[in-house]
Design goal:
With 158 residues, the protein is of the alpha+beta class. It is built from four helices and six strands, in the order H-E-E-E-E-E-E-H-H-H. Strands 1, 2, 3, 4, 5 and 6 form a six-stranded antiparallel β-sheet that branches. A hairpin with a 4-residue loop joins strand 4 and strand 5. Helix 2 crosses helix 3 and helix 3 packs antiparallel against helix 4.
Length: 158
């Protein structure tokens, strides 16, 4: 599945109710369990006046290949926090295009322990682009929901 197909599955599940007007949905972070790949997301807000994010207001996972919710977690107010915003002037269209291109390829070899050199290069490109697009205050939340993925990627891609 490509990135847009994976993201569209949100709206085929009960998770669609979490994506309310005025809130943002993160990029997916992949993990795998006995049932398949889980795409993890979080919902957050953006305060235009303060130029900062707040949240997450919800965290959820979807078995995109199965169009089924894996879990939904709604953190309490004490778990929500203000985070500095990404400098959108630095938003990189080329990085986004490469991120979209490498996303389905990484899904194909997700958590393999014997990746080829070509797969390692694809993974390096994916992670570099993902970081460019998500750096800033949201990065700690991505690490929290996708720690398993980022550990594997770091060990695999070197």
């Amino acid at each position: 599945m490509n990135l847009f197909q994976v993201k569209n599955v949100i709206f085929k599940t009960e998770c669609r109710r979490l994506v309310a007007d005025g809130l943002c949905c993160s990029e997916p972070v992949m993990t795998r369990d006995g049932e398949g790949i889980i795409d993890h997301y979080f919902i957050y807000g953006y305060d235009e006046k303060l130029k900062s994010y707040f949240g997450p207001t919800a965290v959820f996972g979807i078995y995109s290949d199965l169009s089924r919710t894996a879990y939904i977690k709604k953190p309490g107010k004490e778990e929500e926090k203000e985070m500095p915003a990404l400098n959108w002037k630095q938003y990189d269209r080329e990085a986004y295009a490469l991120y979209c291109e490498t996303f389905p390829k990484v899904r194909e070899f997700l958590f393999h322990t014997d990746c080829s050199e070509e797969e390692k290069e694809i993974l390096k490109t994916y992670i570099r682009c993902f970081r460019k697009l998500t750096d800033g205050g949201l990065w700690p939340v991505y690490q929290q929901i996708g720690g398993e993925f980022f550990r594997w990627a770091g060990e695999t891609a070197g």
